[in-house]
Every structure is written in C-alpha cells, then in structure tokens.
Design brief:
The complex is a heterodimer of chains A (310) and B (320). With 310 residues, chain A is mainly alpha-helical. In chain A, 74% of the residues lie in helices and 0% in strands. Classes of the chains: A mainly alpha (310), B mainly alpha (320).
Chain lengths: 310, 320
C-alpha cells in the first residue's frame, strides 16, 4: 500500500493535470462517415477502379452523344466497301460499306443496354426468389431450391441455345433468353444472406417489438444486403454482355444490320486477317470495357465488403 | 451418405427428364412442317412420309416415342445432311471435341493450381500482382476475340529466325486443323484460359483462408519443410472447394469449344453445331444441345459423387 502511494507521487511529478474540459471531450474530432461515404473513400483509393470508372463513363457518353451525330449505322454504300480508317470513315467501313464508327456507337449502345436491362431483371427475380426461400425456409425453400439446382446444372449457354433456336427473333427474345438463367446466382446469394441475417439479435429484437415482416425486410435485411447485391450486379453486367457476344458468334445473338459488340467483333473475325481494323477496333473497345467492368467490380468488392479485405 | 447419393441421382434424372421434355415441346412449337418444300407433295406421299416418321400419331404418343428414343441414345435425324442421324455425327465428331476438351480441362486445372498457389504464397508481391492482372485479362476477353488474336499473333506473325533455317515459311503454331501436338497448343490455351483463371482466383482465396488457420502454425512450429506444408497441409485443404467447380467447368468448356473449333477449323462437333444453326437444321441443333445437356448433367453427378466419397466433410455437411 505504502509503496503504491510512493509510486503515485513519483508519477505525479512527471505529469501535470491540465484540467477537465467536458465540452472538449464531447467534441467530434472528425465527422463520422456513413457507410456510403466510407465505401466511396475506399473505392477512390483504388486507382485502377477509378480509371476504369472514368473509362466506362466515357464509353457511355460516346454511345449516347455519338448516336446524335452518327445515327445512320444501317445504310450501305457499295462504292465504299472495305475502306480502311481514314478521313472520310474514321474507323473504316465493312463489307457492305457501312460506316464502322457509326456501327460501333450503335453496338456499344445495344450491348450496354442489353447488359444493364438483363442484369436489372436478374436482380429483381433473384431477390424475390431468394428472399422467399431464405425468409420462409422449410418446404417452400426446398422446392424452390431444387428448381434452382436443376437450372444450375445445365449450362446457361445450352438453355439459351435451345430457346433461341426456336424463338429466333429480335433483341426482345434475346433478352428473355438471357434472363431465363441468369438470376439463379442472385437468388442463391440473397437466400444465403437472408438466412444468415435473420438469425441476428437485432432482427429478433425487432420482431419482439412487434415489427411485421415488411418492416424487418425494409429496415434490417435490405440495407444489410445492398453491398453484396451491388457487387453481384457489377459482375453480372459484363457476364451478360459476354453471353450475348458468344451467342452472336454462334449466329443466335443480335442480328445484322442491328449492331452489338458481339456481332461486330464476330464480323471482324470473319474478315480476319485481310481487314484488320474490322476486328481490332470493335474487339479492343469490347475487351477494354469488359476489363473496366471487372476492375470496377473488384474495386466495389473491396470497398463495400469490409469483411473480405484482409 | 446413402440418402445424399440417392438424392443426387434422383435430381440428375429429373433434370434430364425436364430438359428432354423442354426440347420436345420447343421442337413441337417450331413454325412450319417438316415436309414443306418448294413443290407441294402429293397427299398420299405426304401421308406415307408422316407415317414413316411417326408424325401421324397423337402428340402424347410422339412424346413418349421421343423419350424412348433419347433414352436409347437416338437424338433425331438431320434434315440437312440427308439420312444422317445426330447420333452418327456425334460418334464421328465427339472424340475430337472430347480430346480438345480434356486437354483444355487439364491445362486449366494444372495452370490454375500452380498460379493460384504462387499467387497466394506471394501475396501482394510482384508475382501475385502479375497473376492477378493475367486473371482479369483472361476474364475480360471473350474467347473468340482471344482465339482470333492469338491465331494472328502466334500462328501468322510468330516465325522466329532460327525456325526459318528449316523452311522459309515454317510456323511453330499452325493456324488451323487438328493433326499433331503443335496444332493443339493454341486452341487448348484459348479454350482453357477462362476456366484456368477462375480456378486461380478461387484457389487463391481458398488458400488465403487456410494459411491463417492454426494447423498451419502448428505445422510450421513442428519444423516441417515448406514444401510439405504447402502440399500436404495447405493445398490438400484448400483444393476441395475449388475442384467441386470442375463439374460446372465441363459445361463451359463444352460450349466454349463450339466457338474454338470453328476458329481453328477443328473437325469436332462445333463445326456441325454452327452449320446446323445457320442452315436452320433444327433437329440437329436440338439433338446436339440435348446430348450436351445430358452429358454435362451426368458429369456433374459423377463429380459430386466422387467428392462426397473422397472428402468426408462434404457428405456430412450435406446430411445436416
């Protein structure tokens, strides 16, 4: 005891009391960040992802603004077939004299449109399906999960080929076929998330307090799932664009004279290697945009899911 | 365990049944009739033809007949290649496709395992960075773009000086056909690339999980040599979740091979497949698709059962 007092005295010699200022103690040193601000801050640190995002925005602007100035992607000009890139045709012309610059603008627009719309539909179906499975569980879950398992075993590509072989048609049928199989991943993700989240104490607390299912869904489940869902979405878009391109190569995708990255690159590959620009220009834009999508997806995953970072 | 195996087999059978049914009804819904030609056939000839192909029977009988045919490995008759059944075309072309597919799969597994391990062990170092960049590029470039590009770069442009001493026009990597080993290199690379990158990616995350486990610390503390730790303790535990993907990979390699075979003029099923689509040979397209769908389902079943036998953790986890 005595020794302790002695030590205290020694310590007191080295330290002076500067007094208690309650106001200062309560003050906020730096503004607290919301989840989104924090995520944005982390996303910005990833240089590759930021560059990709800028690139993607430029590509989108190119397709929107470009289509005002170069709306004519269809008209043929047999006097000007296979013109190399030059003053008159910036990106050259194809075998029927169509301007590649205008076609690329159109193709970008169509591919991005298909990618976005199909991914949105996939997300909606997947969230509903997975949400029901995860929230209710039991028999409903078992039946719906078996359906998903069946859909997952057969490769998506084969199902799409089967359907498109019969329903040859326009972009609409293509979107339908792409939607048919793409949602299963989302459903599984949502199901797992819901099952995990609904076990949490705060959900139990909310239920005890008398909250109904809808409130729990809105207040607790969706805000907690939004991160993984955004990541899934950002990975889904390039996947869909990819699938469309493969179908185009097989002759079941977007039909000429309509343009898409897939059928432009495919037409280029058919004219390869005699007319290099027809292949390299659309293929590079396609590949670079896919690269950008993937890098953004990686960046989002690092930014939105702190658990994944180590 | 028994229950699990039974469940898998049942699910596979139901899947095959459903996909066969879907194919039949899609085919039934096709516009047009099979014997509509430029010149209308006389009624009695049409009747005779309908009877020969069983088209005069009611739909449920035709459906049962179709199920029976598929069950016996009969996937219909081509309407473009006269008198050739889909089965005979499969018999002729499938071995080549399977050869290419197996090569690609082996390349993907070997490459993915090596790169994934290096990447995880060298985490955040130069080798890891390079591998990750390679993975992202592999994921971002569609196979037909990669195939055409490599065909141009390696097949046409790559002709080093020392090779020209043999022959002025000698190419190490031919741009097409399927003859000797050097013909197979580029197609195998391109076809396996996507699967390889996904194995690399999965193995890396899976290994990073394992590396932080306590038993790795124990193994290190015991003074085991690094090689033994990596192979026996890390890979053995990390690889199971990765290799369960192989079943799904077979599917993507099969559908990918349609495209690759076409680029490199390989005499596999891909050629017939794309021809059948452009020639609107519906029977053939449907038959080939159905054959591949059933094939993939069966492979998946085998892979699943194989893993549940090898890894006790899987069957136990599935029972619960």
């Amino acid at each position: 005891m005595a020794q302790e007092k002695k030590v205290r005295k020694e310590v007191k010699k080295d330290f002076t009391v500067i007094g208690k200022d309650l106001e200062a103690n309560q003050a906020v040193a730096r503004p607290s960040l919301t989840y989104w601000q924090d995520a944005w801050r982390r996303f910005r640190e990833n240089k590759l992802a930021v560059v990709s995002l800028i690139f993607l925005v430029l590509v989108i602007l190119y397709s929107i603004i470009g289509s005002w100035f170069f709306p004519d992607y269809k008209s043929q000009s047999l006097m000007n077939t296979y013109q190399p890139p030059g003053k008159d045709f910036w990106f050259g012309t194809d075998e029927l004299g169509r301007d590649l610059f205008a076609r690329l603008i159109r193709g970008t627009k169509v591919s991005l449109f298909i990618g976005l719309i199909v991914s949105v539909i996939n997300m909606i179906i997947g969230i509903i399906f997975g949400g029901i499975c995860g929230y209710y569980g039991g028999k409903v879950d078992m039946i719906l999960m078996r359906i998903i398992e069946i859909l997952m075993v057969v490769p998506d590509m084969l199902v799409m080929i089967l359907l498109l072989n019969v329903m040859r048609g326009n972009v609409g049928t293509l979107i339908f076929a792409l939607c048919l199989t793409g949602w299963t991943d989302v459903a599984q993700l949502v199901r797992g998330q819901v099952m995990q989240l609904k076990q949490n104490e705060y959900v139990l607390a909310a239920r005890v307090l008398g909250a109904d299912s809808l409130t729990i869904l809105k207040q607790h489940l969706i805000p907690n799932m939004i991160g993984p869902l955004i990541i899934k979405f950002s990975m889904n878009v390039p996947g869909v664009i990819f699938a469309e391109a493969s179908l185009s190569y097989l002759g079941l995708g977007v039909k000429i004279p309509e343009a898409s990255w897939g059928n432009l690159a495919q037409a280029g590959a058919n004219n390869f290697p005699a007319y290099l620009w027809l292949f390299f220009i659309p293929a590079s834009l396609f590949a670079l945009t896919m690269l950008a999508f993937n890098l953004i997806g990686d960046g989002l995953r690092d930014a939105l899911d702190p658990k994944l970072r180590r | 365990m028994k229950k699990y195996i039974l469940k898998r087999i049942l699910l596979a059978l139901v899947t095959i049944f459903l996909i066969t049914t879907l194919t039949f009804f899609l085919m039934y819904a096709l516009p047009g009739a099979p014997f509509l030609g430029d010149r209308p056939l006389p009624d009695n000839v049409l009747e005779q033809l309908n009877r020969q192909y069983g088209l005069d029977k009611p739909i449920w009988q035709r459906y049962l007949l179709y199920l029976n045919n598929v069950f016996h490995g009969n996937f219909g008759v081509s309407t473009v290649y006269i008198n050739r059944s889909v089965t005979s075309i499969i018999m002729e072309a499938f071995p080549v496709s399977a050869d290419l597919g197996i090569r690609a799969l082996l390349f993907a597994i070997a490459g993915g395992t090596i790169f994934g391990t290096i990447s995880a062990l060298q985490r955040n170092k130069l080798a890891d960075r390079i591998i990750i960049i390679m993975v992202v590029i592999g994921v971002s470039v569609p196979s037909f773009i990669m195939g055409t590009f490599l065909q141009y770069l390696l097949g046409m442009k790559f002709s080093p000086w020392f090779m020209q001493t043999f022959h002025t026009d000698y190419r190490i990597f031919p741009i097409a056909r399927w003859e000797s080993f050097r013909y197979t290199i580029i197609p195998t690379l391109v076809l396996g690339l996507r699967s390889m990158t996904s194995i690399t990616r999965m193995l890396r995350t899976s290994l990073l999980d394992v590396i932080s486990q306590d038993y790795i610390k124990t193994a290190k503390a015991k003074g085991l040599p690094g090689r033994v730790i990596v192979v026996k303790h890390m890979l053995k535990n990390a690889i199971v979740p990765v290799y369960t993907m192989v079943g799904r990979m077979v599917g993507s390699i099969l559908t990918g091979s349609f495209i690759i075979e076409n680029i490199f003029s390989i005499p596999g099923i891909g050629k017939y497949f794309i021809n059948s689509i452009t020639a609107q040979d519906y029977q053939m397209t449907m038959g080939l698709t159905l054959f591949y769908a059933i094939f993939v389902v069966l492979i998946n079943l085998l892979v699943d059962l194989g893993y549940s036998l090898i890894d006790p953790r899987i069957s136990v986890a599935k029972e619960i």
